[in-house]
Amino acid sequence: MKMKTKIILLAIFIVFTSSANSQNSYIKNRWNIKLAYQNEKTGLSSNIDNIINAKGFNLAINYGVLNNFEFGVNFGYLANLHYDYNTIHYYINSNYHILPYFIKTEDFRLDAYLTADLGGKFVEYTVRKYQRMIYGVGIGFAFYPLKHFGIFGEYKLGKYHVSNSKYNIGLSIKF
To answer: How far apart are CA 142 and CA 112, in angstroms?
Structure first.
């Protein structure tokens, strides 16, 4: 099955299972803002020991639209000084929170979620510029030592820059 088909099926599953969930939600009508460090393996080197990483940051702004589902936008920047390119990416992002099925509480300090991205990027090399589609799915975890302020990590598989995977780690604010 192609990656696009898998993403569409996952999105349909998330919408239907979220609307069927009748519990009180700690996600619906909530804002979540995440600022992250991002790392992608570029795969531009033929020697596996010399694979160069592209590093950057991104900002995600999500809003809880259903009991376990939040949807939003993500913007970011990646740079690889070894190959002298810069990337600006933008995409829609969705997170499906799975812990409420196992833990019933209003004050969640831990969070586990499935995440999906779909968007594009502008890439600027020294010699050329181009735009490309990006997409992926993954899993994320967050810990909130303070009620509204925490840390998170995500690992995603899909088509990002040259790589098929990336990870984000950073700070999260929910209100």
So the answer is: 7
